[in-house]
Amino acid sequence: PTVLGIETSCDDTGVAIVRSSTASAGGFLEGEVTSDFLASQFDLHATYGGVVPRLAARAHEANLPLGLRHAETSSGLAGGLADVDAVAVTAGPGLAICLRHGFAAAVQLAERLRVPLVKVNHLEAHVLAATLAAPEMRFPFLVLLASGGHTMLVLAKSLGLGGFTVLSTTLDDSLGEAFDKVARAVRVGDHCAADAGLNADDPSRAGAGAGADSGAGAGAGSGATVARTLTMAEAAAAGGECDLRGVVETSKGPPVGPSRDDGETVAGHLGAALERLAADGDADAVPLPVPLRGGGGKHRGRAAFSFAGLKSAVVRVCESPGVDVREREVAAAIAASFQRSAVTHVSDQLRLALAACDAGAVEGGAASLGALVVCGGVAANSSVRAAVAAAAAEFGVPVFAPPPRLCTDNAVMVAWAAARKLHSSEPAALADACWEADFSPRWAPGDRQPVYVPKLR
Ligand code: ATP
Ligand code: FE
């Protein structure tokens, strides 16, 4: 099927089209991205130290028409939008006032095109993004999902109802949150020229150098990315009252495949800036705890995540007398030390989970897993990817990760997740994905959804 996807769950507005078929030798569903629009709002929120839902919602309102127009004019399809078989939309989890805008736009478009609307779970979309680059990946697979709002281990058994089981979650913060908090604590924007605007507490820096600069990073490797800063007049003409500096528009790119998993960076994310800073730092310089090690807590022996203590330890270091994070070497050392502790914790917990699979949690043991998948925004981090690959290798499980561009929020993963469900031979997968007229801000992966049988053309 050819699916148009819409993503507005948080602070990225995405509209993308994925055309998929089973033409290849293996008979697996393979997707080709024919159109991809993504407008990020990191500048908009930079001065506030986090995403401001009301501002995010207004930016979605302004950006959605641009995204939809982009899809109309550069669908990459012979028949234009008339070739679209279904509209997919992130229906949750996410910020209600943001989801609302994407959902309304999706309903309108589906009605206009007279095609079914598929509700997509944002977390399942993060997970399934891995299968766009690796169509041959088979169930069951174990997933580490590490994003801005979630950090969890998921066992994916099928695309159908109850096919995704959440095995463990974080006891406190998500890994992405910890990266973001630490990035602010070490004033990452002072040290990464290309990420100006990232210092939350310094409004004078917000926006400087954004736009074309930030887009350049996002497009590295694909060669087909158009990045530019909208003028206020253009933004107003597009119906927006918001400051849209930093809008990154990606035009039609090559099909996403393993070969795109190169040195692409995801510009604009605090975590990505922290990763770059950490690359220049001495990880031995600052002793930091590895969470959930030692002690006999009730989670001992069972995989779980905790990042709040580590995050606070880093903040304490940054605020201690004699430590000046404005010195690049100091900031880089703290960043590197934090990243190593966090990644070591992730490795520990993955090994526990894989060992549990071996001990019977999964029939046939870890070796019967089709894959270990790492996804969500933090999966763009190369240390995290390397740690996951190492754990997978120990247990003889192949590892898959979406290319960095598909790790952070985007509409391609939404369209693709819907395509997988539409194509699935399990009717339950389609029923699960289909629509009753509302979005669901709290929707756990694999949870049942009310069923609406769509009118097919
Ligand atoms: P959720 O998917 O849980 O609803 P979200 O959609 O806001 O949350 P994502 O877009 O999946 O989150 O991920 C964003 C998070 O990933 C941010 O915390 C960001 O700092 C982090 N991140 C992005 N790139 C990197 C990187 N290279 N290293 C570490 N963290 C990163
Ligand atoms: Fe996300």
Low-confidence stretches: 194-267, 450-457
Mean of the pLDDT scores? Answer: 80
Q: Measure the end-to-end span.
A: 13 Å
Number of helices: 16
Tell me the total number of β-strands: 12
Strand content: 15-25%
**Computed CA radius of gyration, to the nearest angstrom:** 21 Å
Class based on secondary structure composition and strand pairing: alpha/beta
The helical percent reads 25-40%
State the shape: globular
For the largest beta-sheet, the strand count, sense and barrel status come to: 5 strands, mixed
Order of helices and strands: EEEHHEHEHHEEEHHHEHEHHHEHEHHH
Bound molecules: adenosine-5'-triphosphate, fe (iii) ion
Spatial order of the strands in the main sheet?
3-2-1-4-5
Cofactor: a divalent metal cation
Biased composition (Gly residues): 208-218
GO molecular function, one term: tRNA N(6)-L-threonylcarbamoyladenine synthase activity
Pfam families: TsaD
Question: What does this entry show, briefly?
Answer:
The protein is α/β, with parallel strands linked by helices and 457 residues long. It has helices spanning 42-46, 53-73, 96-113, 122-128, 130-133, 175-185, 188-191, 212-219, 232-237, 270-278, 308-319, 328-361, 382-394, 404-407, 412-423, 427-433; strands at 2-7, 12-21, 30-40, 86-92, 117-121, 141-146, 151-156, 164-169, 225-227, 248-250, 371-375, 399-400. The site of fe (iii) ion has 4 residues, from helix 4.
